[in-house]
Amino acid sequence: MKALITGCGIAGPAMAMALREAGIEAEIFEAYGKGAEGVGAFLNLASNGLDALRVLGAHRTVMAAGIPTPRMVMWSGTGKRLGEVANGLALDDGTVSHTILRSDLYRVVRDEAVARGITISYGKRLVTFEETGDRVVAGFEDGTWAEGDVLICAEGVHSRTRALLDPRGPRPRYSGLYGFGGITKVPGLPGEPGTYHMIFGKKAFFGYTVAASGETWWFANLPRRLGDEPADWRPALVEAFAGDHNATADLLRTADLGSGLPVYDLPPLAGWHRGRVVLIGDAAHATSPSAGQGASLAVEDAVVLARCLRDEPGHQQAFARYEAERRGRAERVVAYSRRISNSKAPGPVGRVFRDLVMPAFLRRAADQKSLGWLYRHHVTL
């Protein structure tokens, strides 16, 4: 069997490595003309994602590129400490969730795939595919074609292949938030390495962690009408946090803001596969970053799909088993993350109610049993 994989972000290389472990040939086709070095801010790789990477023998390299962040402390915009909850549950060997630059995670999984003999072709934007008997043929924008037994789409939330697979299917859903993030050495934000501080401000949401180096890794979510993008985001961000009881606004006055990007997730699809084509990662079940699970779910998908393709008698049975194993969990995470996103942008009345009930909610969430479904999930190859 040979698998064609479209997309060389996080999910694509993880998928290729999982297939190689299962004894299946794979080749990756990336739409852009070069790699994603330096692209994106940072993300959370939860303990369940690291557990899935361990199945592929890649978790230690990823952990070495990130910083451990096992705790989250929640604050209101008035400076009230709302409570504390684990950012993942430690694995049996003590491994905890890590925060890592997206470009570093990309580099590690891409380099691991290349080191294992995976071919990656750039400038290969898929525009069409067709099935010819027992094969699938992928056509690219540059006029070239590739042929394989299955086509695995790992193109992300705005996947073209998903739209070709089901033209009437749901489109990405805007969360109501724009996301920003960066790394700065501006002093004034208290914290210790390993702890995220999450601030539910009066008008927007802010999160940060302090690295052992003294750098502050921060992100902000600003409620905004989609498309309402000023030429300069700084005044809008500073104004949104100026009334909060912390130094967030001061940091944003000088920090490199990068580009503000709208945050999307994906409503449930009618199906994740058709014929010899199947979706994984954000292409199948994009989740907002609020739960810190996007990359972890993608690696879990890769491990499960590779096992199913190895063990089932044909691709249809493999795709059906993969979707049956993964759909319920993925959709639960998407819904959970969306609820968190909604709590970041309530109105004045909703904000008061949120701050009143959140301490009780966090006390329940601190019970490891309540988080087990999310962080104790284990996939096997």
Descriptive keywords:
7-stranded mixed sheet, single chain, alpha/beta, 381 residues, FAD/NAD(P)-binding domain, 36% helix, 6-stranded mixed sheet, 19 strands
Quick structural summary:
With 381 residues, the protein is α/β, with parallel strands linked by helices. The chain is 36% helix and 26% strand. It comes from Nonomuraea pusilla.
CATH architecture of the domain at 2-67 and 102-172 and 265-344: 3-Layer(bba) Sandwich
Task: Tell me the major beta sheet.
Answer: 7 strands, mixed
Regions with pLDDT < 50 over 5+ consecutive residues?
none
The portion of residues forming beta strands comes to: 25-35%
Distance between the termini: 17 Å
The multimeric state of the shown protein is single chain
Mean pLDDT: 92
Q: What is the CATH class name of the domain at 2-67 and 102-172 and 265-344?
A: Alpha Beta
The CATH topology of the domain at 2-67 and 102-172 and 265-344 is given as FAD/NAD(P)-binding domain
Q: State the fourth-level CATH superfamily of the domain at 2-67 and 102-172 and 265-344.
A: FAD/NAD(P)-binding domain
Structural class, from secondary structure content? alpha/beta
Rg from alpha-carbon coordinates: 21 Å
Helix content: 25-40%
Query: Quick one: how many beta strands?
Result: 19
How does the overall form come out from the CA principal axes? Answer: globular
